[in-house]
Amino acid sequence: MFIELTDILRCPADHEEGVLVLLPDGVTDRQVRSGHLGCMDCGLVYPILEGVAEFEAAPIEAARSVRLTGVAMVAFLGLGGPGGYVALVGGAAEDWTGFAEASDGVHVLALNPPPGVPSGRGVSMARGAGVPVKSRHLRGVVLGPGYADAPAWIAEAVRTLLPGQRVVGEGETPSVPELEVLASADGVWVARAIRA
Ligand SMILES: [Zn+2]
Question: Which of 19, 33, 105, 191 gives the lowest tally of CB atoms within 10 Å of its CB?
């Protein structure tokens, strides 16, 4: 897990979004290999094991995706400039390396990735029952198969996106007031998050 990612993380417990404190044990090249994330509000402590921030068990098994290649995800999200963070969830996290190559220094949070996805520079890995990120901090969210059909995960994407940014999903095209669907083809949809 990339040290600076701590700034945008939140405790997933049901309380106001507060500060998580990073307590690193092993750090290599700004990547935390082991340590803990502690919540200042509720006192819960989450381990970082082999570089993965372990908030909660993944609620949905990551199904592999053939359509969500890194290049496609960068194009669908419409990322115009460098920097910031995106979340790739489930099977969407498999080609994070392709995403990193095609984007301009956008850091990837690979959430609940399929087994065997390699770590590396430009990615932070985490497991959780939701998106463990503060509201309005992400430049894009891509929901892999299974996650894209789950209303709770669409709500998490809408919550964590910066205003006007996009969510991409592989699954049935959602029809919810929080999303303006921009395009939909071959089982992949692209939508803009709308907030009341
Ligand atoms: Zn907490």
Answer: 105
Task: Quote the mean pLDDT of the chain.
Answer: 95
pTM of the model: 0.96
Structure tokens at 61: 């098994």
Q: Tens digit of pLDDT for each residue in 85-107?
A: 999 999 999 999 999 999 989 99
**How far does residue 45's CA lie from ligand 1's centre (Å)?**
8
Residue 17 alpha carbon to ligand 1 centre in Å: 8
Domain count, the chain: 2
Same domain (yes/no): 121, 159: yes
Pairing of strands 123-127, 52-54: parallel
Question: CA–CA separation, 101 vs 83, rounded Å?
Answer: 13
Distance CA 185, CA 196 (A): 27
Give me the domain span that covers residue 97: 70-193
CA of 41 to the centre of ligand 1 (A): 5
Same-domain check for residues 36 and 107: no
pLDDT tens, residue by residue, 154-180:
999 999 999 999 999 999 999 999 999
Task: Assess if residue 59 is contained within a domain.
Answer: no
Residue 37 and residue 98 share a domain: no
Whole-number Å distance between alpha carbons of 183 and 22: 39
Q: Tell me, what amino acid is at 173?
A: T
